[in-house]
Amino acid sequence: MGLLPRWAATDEVAPPRPFHDRFEAGRVLVSRLQPYADRSDAIVLGLPRGGVAVAYEVARALHLPLDVFIVRKLGVPGQEELAMGAIASGGVRVLNQAVIRALGLGQGEIDEVIRREEQELQRREAQFRADRPPLDLKGKTVILVDDGLATGATMWAAITAVRQQRPAKIVMAVPVADPSGCESFRQIADDVVCAITAEPLHAVGLWYQDFPQMTDEEVRDLLARFGQTSPSPSGGQQHTSPSPSGGQPYTSPSPSGGGQGGGV
C-alpha cells in the first residue's frame, strides 16, 4: 500500500480535511495574503480555468482588481497529463528538457503540441479577455493564483511571462502544493504563498471535495460577476459565486464577517 498523503500547513496547524471547493480554497489563501490588501498598485491574475475561481475570492477579499493570465500546459503525446512544458501569453515557452530527453521526444512531436496549444491559447484570450486592452503590469505587484501546483510547469511559464512585463513584484499563490515544489518557486517569484503543503501530493484534485472541470462559460461568468459587484475597500457587501459543479450558488462572506458559504 502506498503512503497516505499527509497535510502540512506552512506556518500553522494543518486543517482537518481538504478544501470543500476552489472558492473555499481562495478564502483560506486570503489569510496569507493580507499584506497586499487595498493596494492601489496590486492586481490578482487567475490562471484559467480553475485558478480563476480561487482568484475570484482572493481579489474580492483583498479589494483588488481581477483578470486572467492565459497559460497552456504542453502535454506529452499519448500521456497528456504529463507536462513537458508550457506556453503563455506574450510568446513565452518553457520546456522541461529532462522529460523530453527521458521520453525521447522528437522536435516534430514537440512542435505539433506547441502549435495546437498556441491555437487554444489564442482562443482563450478571445473568450476570457474579449475586447479588454492588454494587461499593463509594469511597476505593479502581480499576484498569480492557481488552484494548486502539480508539475508547476504552468505557473513557471506564467511567472516567466509576467516578469517580461517588468512588474515591481510577483507573488505566486496557491492553496496546495508539495513542499519541494512550493520552495522551488522562490527562485523566480518575489513572494511564494502555499496555504497548505501536501506530501505526497499525488494530484491537486485529491485535496478538494468538489473539484469539477470548469467550463469557459463559468470563467466568463465569474469575471463578469466580479466586474459588476467587486467590493470597495469600505464595502462589506456579499457576493454570490456560481457553483462550478452546477449546483446552487453559495454566498461568499463579506470581509467584515458573515456566513461561511461553500464550506469551512
Task: List the main descriptive attributes of the protein structure presented here.
264 residues, 11 strands, three-stranded antiparallel sheet, six-stranded mixed sheet, single chain, 2 domains, Ybab, Chain: A, disordered N terminus, disordered C terminus
Low-confidence stretches: 1-6, 12-16, 231-240, 243-264
Q: Describe the main β-sheet briefly.
A: 6 strands, mixed
Give, in spatial order, the strands making up the sheet with the most strands: 1-9-8-7-2-3
Helix content: 25-40%
N-C termini distance? 31 Å
Q: Find the CATH topology of the largest domain.
A: Rossmann fold
Strand content is 15-25%
How many strand elements? 11
- The CATH class of the largest domain is Alpha Beta
Count, helices: 7
Class computed from helices, strands and strand pairing: alpha/beta
Q: Give the overall shape, derived from the CA principal axes.
A: globular
What's the assembly state of these chains?
single chain
Which architecture of the largest domain would the CATH scheme give at its second level?
A: 3-Layer(aba) Sandwich
Number of domains: 2
Cα gyration radius (Å): 18 Å
